[in-house]
């Protein structure tokens, strides 16, 4: 990893938009509350009834889909990666390489604040491995081991 570290101690939504390529309705991180490059990041997702996925999942009992919780974890891991190795190039994206040991222990519902804790295990040759834990009110809602891989893309792909 290089010394091109970005100050990520506390980031608001405007800062996050500058770092991640995701946009509504798929930007799932609202702020970064703490960050130590090369080590860990804590992100927040405020879950509201206005989320587009609640219309159909499930209309009578709205629950945040587990795959979107995992996606929010991956976005937080992306912030940690960028904070650690420097701003990504415009044509550079990070994609899921693997999701292992995913467990969902509690439903996430409108009104919850999802606190996502990401710890870097290893980053080598553009591939990062992370331990991810998402909590609501201090209780684990989901956890997983995730890997993301850097890829340069063109408009032709």
Task: Kindly describe this structure.
With 157 residues, the chain is of the alpha+beta class. The chain has one domain: Roll (Thiol Ester Dehydrase, Chain A). 17% of the residues lie in helices and 39% in strands. Strands 1-2-4-5-6-3 form a six-stranded antiparallel β-sheet, covered by helices on one side. A hairpin with a 2-residue loop joins strand 5 and strand 6. The radius of gyration is 15 Å and the shape is globular. 31% of the residues are buried. The model has no long low-confidence stretch (mean pLDDT 93).
Summarize the structure.
With 157 residues, the protein is of the alpha+beta class.
- In the CATH hierarchy, the third-tier topology is known as Thiol Ester Dehydrase, Chain A
What fraction strand? 35-45%
Overall form: globular
Largest sheet entry: 6 strands, antiparallel
Query: How many discrete domains?
Result: 1
Question: Mean pLDDT, nearest integer?
Answer: 93
Number of continuous helical runs? 2
**Sequence of secondary-structure elements:** HEEHEEEE
Instruction: State the fourth-level CATH superfamily.
Output: Hotdog Thioesterase
């Amino acid at each position: 990893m290089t010394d091109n570290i970005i100050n990520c101690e506390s980031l608001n939504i405007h800062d996050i938009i500058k770092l991640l390529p995701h946009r509504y309705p798929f930007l799932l991180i609202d702020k970064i509350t703490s960050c130590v490059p090369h080590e860990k990041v804590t992100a927040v997702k405020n879950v509201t009834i206005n989320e587009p996925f609640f219309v159909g999942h499930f209309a009578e009992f709205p629950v945040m889909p587990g795959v979107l919780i995992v996606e929010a974890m991956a976005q937080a891991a992306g912030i940690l990666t960028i904070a650690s190795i420097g701003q990504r190039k415009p044509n550079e994206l990070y994609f899921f390489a693997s999701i292992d040991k995913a467990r969902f222990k509690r439903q996430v519902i409108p009104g919850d604040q999802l606190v996502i804790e990401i710890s870097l295990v290893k980053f080598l040759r553009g591939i990062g491995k992370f331990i991810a834990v998402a909590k609501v009110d201090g209780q684990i809602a989901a956890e997983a081991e995730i890997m993301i891989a850097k890829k340069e893309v063109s408009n032709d792909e």
